[in-house]
Specification:
It is a single chain. This protein has 345 residues and is an alpha/beta fold. Helix 7 links the parallel strand 6 and strand 7. Helix 6 packs antiparallel against helix 13 and helix 7 packs across helix 12. The strands form two sheets. A six-stranded mixed β-sheet has the order 7-6-8-5-9-11. Strands 2-1-3-10-4 form a five-stranded mixed β-sheet, with helices on both faces. Helix content is 47%, strand content 16%. It contains 13 helices and eleven strands. The protein has two domains: 167 residues, Bacterial extracellular solute-binding protein, family 7 (D-Maltodextrin-Binding Protein, domain 2, 3-Layer(aba) Sandwich); 128 residues, D-Maltodextrin-Binding Protein, domain 2 (3-Layer(aba) Sandwich). The longest helix is centred in the C-terminal third of the chain and has 33 residues. The termini are far apart.
Length: 345
């Protein structure tokens, strides 16, 4: 009788424990939109398609790019929290509407280059992770960049000052505040709708990375590019905690290690794409990853650089902190603790 009781207890314990190594682990994954270009195509999708093989984990991954799902990027955290998908390639600026703390990763003027962007991401990602776990039942697996976001216009400009009075596509409130501060008219438009909006004259300018713009054909409907970095366009990977907790501790370590490797790879690849696409867009050589266009490259002036450098203290941090502290009272103080020294504050 005692043996039967012991056997039953062991079976019950096993059934309540995380997934054993031989169990199939199903992951429903949302990736970056196809329209965003080469990082999605050459790094992200192949990673998920070969994840089981590379890690040795018993995974069955169902990967879908965001723009094939009918789900909007601003809904990603809600989708993760609900468990509709297990893992999502998070578009940080867009989901910051649901969790303003996230935008502290990428305030306008905070990260003019990749080196600064990596420092900020590494310093602040744990704070973001804690907030996502607390409010959205989501663990942050890593943060990576599309690279410095620059301005494309179908209207002749010679400096940042010439944006005054022009309608400029933006993708988050922090960037909108900055565009307003230099006299532009911010217009929030999803990435997939920008090409048509530029072609129809709904907007005169739009901001994104050189590689994404090249892949989406923005140079077909613009004439000038101002290669002044406003934001780093950080993105990340989030996994629903219920899915994460089904893994054994060893499986969690293996999966996290795989994402660490992917993130490092994308940081390097993103910088290569940024430099190459920047040349492609203005007809330069070498141009190996994109389509060659003939945009006018607007020289970046010292005044332009100064305006963006001062933006963190004067515009982007104060306006963001006011909004963020309303939902997260420790928001500004946590950011200063983690990032203040890096930002020169």
């Amino acid at each position: 009788m005692k043996k039967l009781l012991l056997s039953a207890l062991v079976c019950a314990a096993v059934s309540a424990s995380p997934a054993m190594a031989e169990d199939t682990i199903k992951l429903k994954v949302i990736g970056q939109p196809l329209a965003t270009g080469l990082i999605q195509k050459n790094k992200e999708q192949p990673f998920f398609e070969t994840l089981a093989e590379k890690t040795g984990l018993p995974l069955k991954v169902n990967y879908k790019p965001l723009d094939t799902t009918g789900i909007k990027d601003v809904e990603q955290l809600r989708v993760l929290k609900s468990g509709m998908f297990d893992l999502v390639s998070l578009r940080m600026s867009q989901i910051s509407r649901d969790e303003p703390t996230i935008l502290g990763l990428d305030l306008v003027g905070l990260s003019p280059d990749f080196a600064q962007g990596r420092k900020v991401a590494d310093a602040y990602k744990e704070t973001v992770d804690e907030r996502l776990q607390e409010r959205f039942n989501t663990k942050l697996l890593g943060v990576w960049p599309f690279g410095p976001q620059v301005m494309f216009c179908n209207h002749p400009i010679e400096s940042l000052e010439d944006v005054k009075g022009l309608k400029v596509r933006v993708y988050d409130q922090n960037l909108a505040q900055f565009v307003e501060s230099v006299g532009g008219i911010p217009v929030p438009i999803g990435f997939g709708d920008v090409h048509q909006s530029l072609a129809l004259g709904v907007i005169e300018c739009a901001i994104t990375g050189p590689s994404s713009a090249n892949s989406a054909g923005w140079p077909e409907v613009t004439t000038h590019v101002l290669p002044l970095g406003f934001q780093m366009a950080l993105n990340g990977y989030g996994i629903n905690l219920n899915a994460w907790n089904k893994l054994t501790p060893d499986q969690q370590v293996t999966l996290q290690s795989a994402f660490d490797g992917l993130v490092d790879e994308i940081w390097t690849y993103s910088e290569e794409l940024f430099e190459d696409a920047g040349r492609c867009n203005v007809g330069g050589e070498p141009c190996t990853t994109g389509t060659k266009f003939d945009l006018v490259e607007v020289p970046v002036t010292e005044k332009d650089l100064s305006i963006v450098a001062n933006t963190v203290k004067e515009v982007s941090f104060p306006t963001w902190a006011e909004v963020c502290n309303k939902t997260n009272p420790e928001c500004a103080s946590d950011w200063k603790r983690d990032v203040g020294a890096i930002a020169g504050m």
